[in-house]
Amino acid sequence: MPELDVSGRDRPLSVVDRIKEYILLNQLAPGSPLPTEKELSEQLSVSRSGIREAMKTLSALDIVEVRHGYGTYVGQMGLTAMVQSLAFRGMLNAGSDHHVLADLIDVRQLIETSLAETIIDSLSPQAALTMRRLTTTMEEKADRGEDFRAEDRQFHLILMQTTGNALAVELTGAFWDVHAVASHSLGPNTDLHETARAHIAILDAIERGDAEQFRTAIRDHYVPVRARMVENQERP
Q: Known Pfam families for this protein (predicted)?
């Protein structure tokens, strides 16, 4: 096994870092088993209680998965912890400002517009058909005054899945979930038809192969929520 740096005091944070270093140096993949608590304690020169406390922290971050009765494994390292943290931060700030939501919108827009050419070049006919059906459902629900969060989320996930960038897909799903929570502070969406049309414009631009029009449609898509944020901040 590669030599580890075990210098420093036996503090929970340092133990967390040592276990992460162990995973990296041994090139363990998600799902790989970790040594037992006793073995890690010996290899890292850390008390078993220190290992135990560090595992609680790492488990909360989805870096490790503790399977009671079976052992401890490298986790899937999803973005659950980040989503929960951002969502809670958004709810805490809901009464005073909308910086979290504004930042999320900026990041979502940046990711989508920066991948315009990749999306246009890679979108399959089947994916385009699925997205067209989603926009049809959006319009139908808008006519009935119903929100269409599920269709909206799936539409944007398909955009990212088209790129083949797994991290972009996961980030989009995570940011969308936080966006959905944080936007509750703005009240009900009264721009359903405008939002549905924006998704149609995005898909139309892709099918025309027009990257610049795609970027414009993406920016237009976020105009209604930005306007609602401004209106909400101007209220006494």
A: FCD, GntR
